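Lab meeting tomorrow. Please check the following:
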Amino acid sequence: MIGDVARRSGVSARMLRHYESLGLVRPTGRTDAGYREYSGEDVRRIFHIESLRSLGLSLREVKRALDDPGFTPSELVDDLVRQTRERIAAETELLTRLHRIGAAEPAGWEDVLRVVALLQGLGSKSAGARQRAALSSVDEVPVPVEALVEAVLGESDPNVAGALRWALAHSGDGGLALLAQGLGSPAAEVRKRAVQSIAEIPGGEATALLRDALANPDVAVRRYAASALGARGVADAVPTLIDMIVEEANDVDAADALSALASRPALADRIATGLVGRLAHDTVDSSARRRLTQALADIPGSTASRALAELSHDEDRAVALTAEYILGIRDAR
């Protein structure tokens, strides 16, 4: 009887009647009293139905799978895999959003709604909306730093990226660990955005990350880190800054950073020696030697002055003239 089958199968009597109405399972017969009778085969079919339903099949798909001799499951299984992945992605996104709302520690539903609006703004297709959300994240209910890091590492619009970096810098150093992971991304643009963001965050922890970035395999990361460290007065940046002058990669900024570092007497001779050493290198071409000579202009001290005096007699006429001109300016000071 239907009650016995319901107990044995774990399927409610109401659902068994629904299966029967759809033609999924039919009782073998009825008793004299009119009760449904299910055979062992009927019960096995009920278990098969439940097994297929557990995979996410609709009842129509279950009926087709059980009744169609020509049914091949591969296409349906592939479709189920795709649907499941999409569902997992959607649920994961929801879980992430809920965690971020919780991390903002909202005091009430108004705060929750503001956080949701800001998170939606950060994910908007409109660059203007993303920028407004980034700027608002500082003044309104704070957006969790994880959301800001995710946004800045994926942002291609320079204005929005600038606003996001500004917001990150005002949120403290909580995002540095995530930005450090960004430095190891396989995507060059993500690595670049990570180091740019770290460069705008003050404090010793950010400086330590920038020092580590000087050894990054990505030359662009090394250059951004060196420029930022030069502005922070960190001498470790000197070799990379000199490389930038030689390679004509943001060489003006690199020369300015060296000049700022050389304002510390302890570093002036070290920087001048580094520049002179590269000038003497056989692999450095004429234009690079001129840039190195120009960089000596703002390096104080006797080492730089002696180097310029020697360079004023250099075989390369352009280098000699550059050194002579710089010496004239230095003598006039």
Summary: The first strand starts at residue 29 and ends at 30. Residues 233-333 form one domain.
